[in-house]
Specification:
This protein is an alpha+beta fold and about 300 residues long. The chain has three domains: about 90 residues, Ribosomal Protein S5, domain 2 (2-Layer Sandwich); about 40 residues, no CATH class; about 140 residues, Butyryl-CoA Dehydrogenase, subunit A, domain 3 (Up-down Bundle), CATH 1.20.140. The chain is about 60% helix and about 15% strand. The strands form two sheets. The chain has a four-stranded mixed sheet, covered by helices on one side. A two-stranded antiparallel sheet has the order 5-6. It is rod-shaped.
Length: about 300
């Protein structure tokens, strides 16, 4: 099984809190050419932006990440205070309405229930430096937990991808060996083709030197010899398997190998003098394309 492969697609969530504030961290990851980090933080928490980026960059290499922080204050959090100015305005209006016979006398609980009269002090305004530092440390520790869960989800998906990629490499190997066994790719078939071309050229141009005709025929046959392409395909196959066994952030290197696979498969198809070999080459290209699509998901 391929070792420690990571997908770029994952999701993780962790939550924490203290006696006055609850928080939830979320990380979503999708494919990306590099490491792109976007953090959505509530007002007043921009101080976390750099620490979050540093933590992500230390553990991740590729992918587009969205980091979110959601806050919820507990019902008992913060000091309750009365907006005296607004209360006085409500009381004055209530008195005028009562004197004009348009309303009953306002009660204290009725006035306090009006919007904006009772306010909850923002917790950030009441925290001293020590408590603020303790809360920040607790929140970042929960973020660390979130990113570790995120990495584990990447690994789990990476193992699934690794098994799929290994199976596709097996299919590529089968296609390579089938092409090698094809009669048009064998030396005997090529020599027979050379003799046939020489005979045809001599019949068509009897005045030309036989040695010159043989050189031209050999050149044509050489252009149809796909053994060199098949050897390079085998080398790329070995390199791809070595990368899967190595694990880690191998996505970019595997993507480069996919380009090399494609180049040799295209050349094989263009040089093929045989319908069957061309068919095998097209099948090979299809599997290579499937392999490339899955490689795009690897970190």
């Amino acid at each position: 099984m391929p070792a420690d492969l990571r997908s770029m697609t994952a999701y993780a969530r962790a939550q924490g809190g203290d006696d006055t504030l609850a928080w939830v961290w979320e990380i979503r990851g999708v494919n990306g050419r590099g490491l792109d980090i976007r953090a959505r933080l509530p007002h007043g928490f921009d101080r976390f932006d750099q620490p979050l980026r540093q933590r992500a960059q230390a553990k991740l290499h590729r992918g587009s990440l969205q980091i979110g922080l959601t806050l919820r204050r507990s019902s008992s959090s913060g000091d309750v205070r009365v907006n005296s100015e607004l209360l006085a305005q409500y009381a004055e209006i209530a008195a005028e309405l009562h004197e004009g016979g348009k309303a009953v006398s306002a009660s204290a609980d009725g006035l306090l229930a009006l919007p904006g009269v009772l306010e909850r002090a923002e917790e950030g305004e009441t925290l001293d430096e020590t408590r603020q530092a303790q809360r920040d440390a607790a929140m970042l520790a929960d973020f660390d937990t979130t990113i570790e869960s995120f990495i584990e989800m990447r690994r789990a998906e990476g193992q699934r991808l690794g098994a799929l990629l290994s199976g596709q490499l097996d299919q590529i190997e089968t296609a390579i060996e089938t092409a090698s066994a094809c009669a048009a790719a064998q030396p005997d078939a090529l020599r027979e083709r050379l003799r046939g071309l020489v005979a045809e050229l001599l019949e068509a141009s009897p005045s030309l030197p036989e040695e010159r005709l043989a050189q031209e025929a050999a050149l044509l046959v050489g252009k149809a010899d796909v053994r060199e392409e098949l050897d390079r395909l085998r080398a790329h196959l070995e390199a791809a398997r070595a990368l899967l066994a190595e694990g880690g952030a191998i996505g970019r290197r595997l993507d480069f190998l996919c380009q090399e696979f494609n180049r040799e498969a295209n050349t094989l198809c263009s040089k093929s003098p045989d319908v069957e070999l061309t068919r095998i080459g097209l099948q090979l290209k299809a599997v290579i394309e499937q392999f490339r699509e899955q490689v795009q998901n690897l970190e």
